[in-house]
Amino acid sequence: MSSLCGIYASVVKINLKRDDGNNYMCTGYLIAPDVVATAGHCSYEKGQGRAISMDLWTGYHGRASTSSDQHVQHRRGVKIATTSQWIGSKMSNHDVAFVKLDSPFHGLTPYTYAQTPSHIAEEIVIAGYPGDKVDNGQKGADMWEGTDTANFDLNTSCQNMLVYKISTYNGKQELFESFQVHLTDHGNR
What we know:
The chain is mainly β and 189 residues long.
C-alpha cells in the first residue's frame, strides 16, 4: 500500500538509533505539523537504551523514494518525551512518546484527538511500517495495513486499553492504546 494514500498520509516512518549503537524502526502519527506521537518503546527500551537520533518520513515507500519522490518529506527528531511510568515500570498503558521535529511537515493534516467511546463493536484499521515485512530486500520499506473487528468495553478492560488481534510485527498480537484507535479507525481524524 502506498503511504501517499489520503487517510494514511500523516502516518510516519521512523528510523532511530539507540544508546546500544543499533538501528531500529517504528511507526508514528503526525498530531501537529511538528509533533509525532509514537510508542514509548520507540524512545526507550531496557537493554537497548534511549533513542539518541531519529529520522522521520511521510510518504516513505522504500529507500529510493527518499531521493526520487517529491512527495516524501524527511525530518529529524530534536526532542523525545515519554512517561516516567514507561521508563520505570514498562507498563503497557504508559507506552507512549512524543517527538518534536526540527521543522514542520508541510501539506499534511495531522490526526486530532477524539475521545474514545467506552463501548465499541466495529472494524478498526492499523496502518504502519512493520519491520518484519520485506519489500525489495528492505525491511519496513512500505506501509501496511491490517484490520480486525474490535469489540470492547473500556470500563471493564484491563488497564483501560483495547487489545487487538492484528499482527503488527512478527506475528505478535499487541496491546493498542485507546488514544490511537481514533487515529486509525476508518480514517476518522
